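Researcher: Here's the sequence for the chain we discussed earlier.
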Amino acid sequence: MALDSNGNPDKSISKFESMLKTDDVYFFDAEDFEDIIHYYLNNGKIALGKKAIQIGLEQHPNSLELKLLRVEVLVFEDKFEAAEHILDELQDFDAFNDEIYIQRANICSKQDNHQEAVNLLLEALHHAEDSFDIHSLLGMEYLFMDDYEKAKRSFMRCVEFDESDYSSLYNVVYCFEFLEDFEGCIHYLNDYLERNPYCEVAWHQLGKMYFAQNMYQEALTAFDFAIISDDSFIGAYFEKGKVLEKLGRYNEAIENYEVTITIDDPTSHAYLRIGKCHEKLGNDDLAKYYYYNTVHEDPLLDKGWLAITDFHSRQKNFEKALFYINKAINIDGENPLYWKKAAKIYFQLGNLDEADFAYKQTVDLGNYELDTWMEWSETLKRVGDFNSSIQVLVQGIEFYPEESKLIYKLSGVYLKNKELEKSKEKLMQALQLNSENLHLFESEFPEFKNFHGLKMLLSEFKKAST
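Model: Thanks. This is the structure I predict for it:
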């Protein structure tokens, strides 16, 4: 296939480019043109690739491979009708060429007709001498169709053909993960490692599987073997650090994160993890130092800004926490996590109008978490804007219709708004959903005891439940 790997510029490419500059005409073998075109397409130089195809076909008008390369470029440019026309002509001369079926499959895939693409690729398998690429393409089509079981089998075939095909190996693991078959993945990787005991990629993936299953000692062993196989494998050190964090071995975790910084340029993720370890160890100054380095290294990493903000919030230094979350908002005002954090801090500071605005931004930007609705409605309740608090709760219940906490709270706010009948209706609904959460209503709205209707309703419900 044209977009497979090819080498660096060679004499043919230099000669071809010299011809373009001088307007001289040099003759090339068809195979030379194929190499030149592959090189240009692989390096994203589509215009030069098309020029090489044009000249190549002028010199070799009957070359099937050059025509197929032309088809590939047409497909890349979404010129499907022209591509199909050439494929029809080619199939009249060579009905059993697997590349023709592959290109037809590419067209179907780009038109989102993935089942037909699969059918064509299966047909191509019948005519192909080397089916490695076809199994890879099949795997991708099955992924588009969300058929992870068949995708997994296709990528497994690729690994059988070439056990150093790590791209396919990653895809096999991805399919196992999506199918939530962690045990199957662990078995597959261990079997692979029996044949390839020094494959750092497989050890790394195995460690991640063990980590996902909370098998931390096994994960440590796997990451150690990954490091033994390649002592410059940054990912293995980083993942090992995460396991050590889970085990509470923070100093050892820091050592592994620091190794990643010495091997390559520092990353914001490594700084962040080191900062969290130091915070767990009570090294507050070092924690702050690494958190600041996190956002300096990558100002767009929201986890860094949230870590600094949370650090100061835990220290009850809400003014400083607000300072940093506002810096984050100035960088990325479309991040709902920043606005939600700002809302919580404004609430702590008693700036309820600002908290209300921040919660509105949070929801407008797509954060619909349960606590967002609860906290926003509480903010409005504290302001005394019961109508708006009710509107927020009603909106939240649309997302969480079975969440009794929202309905209890709505009943209470109706009560505060002197809408007794609506309060009774919502209280009964909440009791039917989850009577165990009644204590939340009783503690937040003690005034319900002064309303005979609610007391009677509650008494009747308790009698009916016994």
